């Protein structure tokens, strides 16, 4: 006698049948799966678009960060905190090289993107260093130099100019005057103007061979001889200004050219210019001229 199992009385578990009916049968289940797939596809598409936007933003933003991060320390702290600019430069360079060679270390699909990003960061780093050094040499170094240089008050124009080679601001005695009749404009691309500074007694009677150690100077503020309008020269309450004692100490004033102009003016007026003559940019507010280096 053989035994055969009988399945005529088999019934599906209630929970399985209920779950199948909840999906609306086979057709309903397919629609649910299709809807879920569409949801994930849309979500992935949104993520891809967001990733592309982030990549573009990084491609623009990161080189700019490298440029600013390198330029500012070189421009502002190269003199006082010398190690800081070089450390920032090294970090920015390492970052650029890392991005550029990243596809060689890790297999990535978009290798061109990383190479462009790395190259852009390296170029921005070089530009930041160059511009930062330019700003330091041309502007901020002079601002700091004037900041640590002494100011002198009530100086006689007949004093030995060599004692004031490190001056930032020179205020002369109240009887000091600029002799505009002996001024001269020397053309070297621009007109470099010079005029001797005398004390009251010397101004009244200038003798041949008089040594003039202090000269008022300016650029494009005179014409030929006897017409000097560089600063408030006619203001009797102004007796000094900003000292120009080193070559290239200000962006627009060339010390060597002023020396040539002073020698030409002295030759025509039978005066003598010492080798350590001091040139002064006449001003009622010389500290404002110093602040211009920072602006």
UniProtKB/TrEMBL annotation:
<feature type="transmembrane region" description="Helical">
    <location>
        <begin position="84"/>
        <end position="105"/>
    </location>
</feature>
<keyword id="KW-0472">Membrane</keyword>
<keyword id="KW-1133">Transmembrane helix</keyword>
<protein>
    <submittedName>
        <fullName>Uncharacterized protein</fullName>
    </submittedName>
</protein>
<keyword id="KW-0812">Transmembrane</keyword>
<feature type="transmembrane region" description="Helical">
    <location>
        <begin position="112"/>
        <end position="134"/>
    </location>
</feature>
<feature type="transmembrane region" description="Helical">
    <location>
        <begin position="56"/>
        <end position="78"/>
    </location>
</feature>
């Amino acid at each position: 006698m053989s035994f055969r199992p009988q399945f005529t009385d088999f019934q599906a578990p209630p929970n399985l049948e209920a779950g199948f009916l909840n999906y609306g049968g086979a057709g309903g289940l397919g629609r649910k799966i299709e809807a879920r797939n569409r949801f994930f596809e849309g979500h992935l598409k949104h993520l891809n678009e967001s990733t592309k936007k982030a990549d573009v933003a990084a491609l623009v933003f990161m080189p700019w960060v490298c440029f600013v991060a390198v330029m500012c320390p070189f421009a502002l702290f190269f003199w006082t905190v010398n190690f800081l600019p070089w450390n920032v430069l090294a970090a920015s360079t390492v970052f650029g090289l890392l991005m550029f060679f990243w596809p060689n270390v890790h297999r990535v699909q978009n290798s061109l993107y990383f190479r462009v990003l790395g190259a852009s960061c390296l170029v921005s780093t070089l530009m930041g260093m160059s511009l930062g050094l330019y700003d330091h040499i041309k502007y901020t170094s002079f601002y700091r130099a004037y900041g640590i240089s002494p100011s002198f008050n009530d100086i006689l124009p007949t004093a030995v100019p060599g004692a004031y080679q490190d001056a930032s601001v020179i205020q002369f005695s109240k009887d000091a005057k600029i002799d505009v009749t002996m001024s001269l404009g020397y053309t070297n691309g621009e007109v470099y103007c010079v005029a001797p500074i005398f004390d009251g007694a010397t101004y009244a009677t200038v003798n041949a061979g008089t040594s003039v150690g202090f000269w008022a100077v300016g650029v494009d503020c005179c014409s030929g001889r006897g017409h000097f309008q560089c600063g408030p020269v006619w203001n009797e309450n102004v007796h000094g200004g900003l000292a120009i004692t080193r070559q290239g100490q200000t962006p627009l004033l060339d010390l060597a050219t002023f020396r040539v102009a002073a020698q030409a003016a002295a030759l025509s007026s039978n005066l003598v210019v010492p080798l350590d003559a001091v040139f002064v940019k006449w001003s009622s507010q010389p500290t404002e001229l110093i602040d211009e280096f920072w602006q």
